[in-house]
């Protein structure tokens, strides 16, 4: 299913294959020989998304751009089932395994592997050919690779990256943070009520 969102329509190369249950919304460019499988959602929420050639987006993966963070996915990259990419730049020949999460402002270099259920956090930079082990967390620039049981170290690095400030423009110390966050984000997402189905 393809949708026009806030005046922008998807541009899909005729050689790309899009499953009938995939959702492509807004300012999305999909290159030649891409494969977008069932249940995948590619949604440009104010910023563009570009998939180069030969990108595979597997079942139920989510790719989302925001007004402040576009998405670019390089050639010959695989986005695994149930993986999520939000506002990130992904290089060529990258493997994002099942269940991986890549957050806003992250930059993943060429030929990296982010293995099953691993996380690449906000504004983190993975140099080319980095491997993030199964279930581990990549955080920061310079990069730290930490196992999930090292929560205090992850939080120390993550806190400095300021997720609510960077993504939502809100101070973490705001007394009613979640009230403001959900109301602001909800208003932005509500723009989908004016989407136009194109197919």
TrEMBL record:
Q: Which domain of life is it from?
A: Bacteria
Q: Which InterPro entries match?
A: Hexapep, Transf_Hexapept/Carb_Anhydrase, Trimer_LpxA-like_sf
Entries under Gene3D superfamilies matching the protein: Hexapeptide repeat proteins
Bilayer-spanning residue ranges = none
Q: Which Pfam families match?
A: Hexapep (PF00132)
For this entry, the protein name equals Transferase
Annotated source species: Microbacterium lacus
